[in-house]
Amino acid sequence: MMLLKTKNLKFIIKTLVLLFLCQPLFAQDGNTNPKTKFKVDGVAGVVGDYLILESDIDKFLFDIKSQGQSSVDITPCQVMGKLLEDKLLAHHAIQDSIVVNDAQINSEVDQIIDRFAQQLGSIQKVIEYYKKDNIAELRAELFAIRRDIRLSESMNEKIITSVDVTPDEVKSFFESIPEDELPTFGVELEIAQIVIEPKATDEERQRIIDRLNSFRSDILDNGSSFATKAVLYTDDAASRGDGGFMTINRKTPLVKEFRDVVFGLQEGEVSEPFETEYGFHIATLEKIRGDKLEIRHILLIPEVGKAQEEEAKDKIERIKKRIEEGELTFDQAAREFSDEKETKYDGGVLVNPVTLDKRFELNKLDPTLYTKVNNLKDQEVSLVFNDPSRTGKTRYKILTVKNRLEEHKADYSKDYIKIKDLALREKQIKAISEWQKEKIEETYIKVNGDNRDCEYVSNWLKK
């Protein structure tokens, strides 16, 4: 148990998203003053081929404050220890030939430069401020910083990826915690919902299908360009500029209906119109490159009128009334009427995407959801509200709290998933600690100046 407490800083700083390292040069928060400068006043340490500057420590602490976080309990010595850890990870990621995604890093660099330009007024001002000769030089420096971050993260993931805990280990971990040190968990809710979506009329749906069929015929019979039609007509803004083009593989997150169609196509084939939760599509397979498919698609979304929206709202109001009058249970109504396939067959019960169980910590709920359920009593039904989908489609919902667990000390049976997560975290810390101990001995490391007076958890001074 002592290891978890001693090394807790690793996770505190991780939750601050490596504010300096992940947001280089200066914090990117909108409230940050981009003209705050730091003096480069010496080398604080060396890890392999990496230097840590004294100013890096100051920037880290400054960025924590600029993001609205308190740095009172985080000392320069702790930050130095964190920077040493990250440089060690990055150094050995290179030694282990770990490959990072350059395209992803370039995209991140673009976002950083755009943010800097918004803060300073223009890209040219960013270049001048950092005393670079041109944008290419600035990009190269940012790319190197972001690449080191990705290397560090990838090496860390490699160390812990195979670490797991057994039920016996979870139980032993829990029993090792003194009674007066058991963590307290806040109020948790089990929430269920019913979703009713306005439906386009049969005539509108058929109009969309007919239009897609006309596109398909024009492409197959007259040699028209699929890409041009996508640019002109698709409702998918994300792929419109590329003529509906996408590169996908089996791991690409796609809705089932879309995946089933595109992976069943032959090169050059154009699909019949098919429906997904987003609307109606046609798709074509242009090229197979190894495990990747190069495809294009056109999406058309049927229009839903005010009459259909009112009809959907009236329907869910009637459902709510039947539940409140005892004619139906919430569970029965969800199974019979809800339009959300992911939850309806489990009575509308929501699954926490972070923990994968059915409990949500009240103080971590999305603010919109929080206001809807905070004051609900068990089994009480919320007011009807519109919660638009990812694509902006109207969705009417009602919610209920199936169960409320008040703030409480950790209980092995009630809180098994959370306790397992803590046990796993401690085991991961041990794995990283053992890896660090081995790599520190075989890596060139030098800590300079006052940083040698720090009390580090790891043997960075090689005493």
UniProtKB/TrEMBL annotation:
Gene3D superfamilies per UniProt: 3.10.50.40, Porin chaperone SurA, peptide-binding domain
Keyword field: Coiled coil, Isomerase, Rotamase, Signal
Quote the PANTHER family the UniProt record gives. Answer: CHAPERONE SURA (PTHR47637)
Q: Which PROSITE patterns match?
A: PPIC_PPIASE_2
Q: Which residues form a coiled coil?
A: 306-336
> What Gene Ontology terms describe what this protein does at the molecular function level?
peptidyl-prolyl cis-trans isomerase activity
Question: Could you identify this protein by its name?
Answer: Periplasmic chaperone for outer membrane proteins SurA
Signal peptide (residue range): 1-27
Q: Which organism is it from?
A: Dokdonia pacifica
- What Pfam families does the record point to? Rotamase
